[in-house]
Amino acid sequence: MIPVTKPYLPSREKLDRYIDGIYEGQWLTNNGPLVQELTRRLEEYLGIENLLLVSNGTLALQIAYRALGISGSEAPAEAITTPFTFVATASSLKWAGVDPLFVDIDAETWCLDPALVESAITPLTRAIVPVHVFGNACDVEAIDELGRQHGLKVVYDASHAFGITYKGESLLKHGDAATLSFHATKLFHTGEGGAIIFKRKEDLERAKKMINFGITGPESIEEVGINAKMNEFQAAMGLCVLDEMEENLKARAAVWHRYEQALSQILQLQAKPEALDYNYAYFPVVFESEEQAVRVLDTLKENGVLARRYFYPSLENVACLNSQLEQPVSKDIASRILCLPIYAELALEVQSHVSHVIDAELKA
Ligand SMILES: *Cc1c(COP(=O)(O)O)cnc(C)c1O
After folding, report:
1. Whole-prediction pTM
2. 32 in any annotated domain
3. Is a pLDDT exceeding 90 seen at residue 19?
4. Which segment of the chain is annotated as a signal peptide (predicted)?
């Protein structure tokens, strides 16, 4: 079966050398030398400051909320977010005692529609948690401004936005914080892992304590923290993947552009702003109807190709998230979308086969 994505496996020899180093130094976790090196390398690569490595992208969101004082532990709290995302965006809020309040997406960009945000704000709203979905830039100017006007924190779930620049600068610079996931299936990965990019140094310092149980010295515990530390093996994988990022991106870009050439005339693609420099992490396509999307999904499967219904269902339809309101645009896009296989070594024949199957189904 051809999967929708494949974890990028970097040079084994290089990884072995890092692991030899871990054995020699006998330092396995707790802000070890490789975690420190990866922090520096990522700040440089991404063109940002105040980056904190953590053990996964879901904890990145949760630590960001806590560090910014977004919490439902003392009084009821809400955060405005998008229903068109991976479940962790919303479930991480719920886990922090904050009720996710879904607001619909834009039909072209599939990101949170800022025009709908303002009227959804209530006295309980503490934050806006938008998602740069599939790496597309949210309307960051409008959302950052709404945050300022209403005194709300803005946390971007930037799990898909590794390496993306907007107007010549890292997209991760927007918001009070932006979070990344380094899960194995993501463009850049550490097996499991994640990071938070804070706007302010003092928030980074608070979060650093939080991820290490609130411990601040050999005999001092300042607050209730958690364990969200990245370990040295994760960092070693990250350093190796980062070294090969350019080749990986080049190969993915070629795959992405071939799909675009074959499919952009017959299917709806995600609309991105001119000023966005994309990372080729995903190739989502929207069909005319749910029936057509499901038919293509099934036919591809019969042909040994696993496309995926990302993101489906729209999260206001997930019962445990207790949402009250339907979000028609998100629901509609979610019902008609498929993500096609994309990874560096996807064979040319497989890719043309996928395009042919889709073309034939549309004509059937
Ligand atoms: C992958 C992902 C997460 C969760 O990241 P993990 O590292 O798997 O915990 C959160 N939000 C979005 C949008 C994601 O795609």
Report:
1. 0.97
2. yes
3. yes
4. none
**153 and 186 fall within a common domain:** yes
Distance CA 70, CA 258 (A): 43
Which of 242, 271, 304 is where one domain is finished? 242
Question: Do 132 and 84 meet the contact criterion of CB atoms below 8 Å apart?
Answer: no
Same domain, 224 and 354: no
d(CA 233, CA 4): 26
Q: Whose CA is nearest to atom 10 of ligand 1?
A: 88
pLDDT of amino acid 73: 85
Per-residue pLDDT tens for 341-361?
999 999 999 999 999 999 999
Same domain, 265 and 219: no
How far is the C-alpha of 358 from the C-alpha of 364, rounded, in Å?
A: 10
What's the chain's average pLDDT? 97
Closest approach atom of ligand 1 to CA 131: 13
Same structural domain, 105 and 158:
yes
**Same structural domain for residues 63 and 109?**
yes
Active site residues: 186
- Amino acid of residue 162: F
How confident is the model at residue 364, as a pLDDT? Answer: 83
Of ligand 1's listed atoms, the one at least distance from the Cα of 182 is 7
Nearest to 261 by CA among 343, 351, 333: 351
Residue 204 sits in a domain whose CATH number is 3.40.640.10
Q: What's the gap in Å between 285 CA and the centre of ligand 1? A: 21
For the stretch 50-100, pLDDT in tens is 999 999 999 999 999 999 999 888 899 999 999 999 999 999 999 999 999
Ligand 1 surroundings by CB, under 6 angstroms: 56-58, 85-86, 88-89, 131, 157, 159-160, 181, 183, 194
Asked if the structure places residue 282 within a domain, the reply is: yes
Last residue of a domain, one of 242, 262, 290: 242
pLDDT class of 254 with cuts at 50, 70, 90:
very high
Domain annotation covers residue 260: yes
CA 87 / ligand 1 centre spacing (Å):
8
Burial of 310 (0-12, 13-18, 19+ CB in 10 A): middle
Q: For residue 194, which atom of ligand 1 is closest to its CA? A: 7
Which element (helix H / strand E) includes 332?
helix 328-336
Q: How many domains does the chain have?
A: 2
The 10s digit of each residue's pLDDT in 270-282 is 999 999 999 999 9
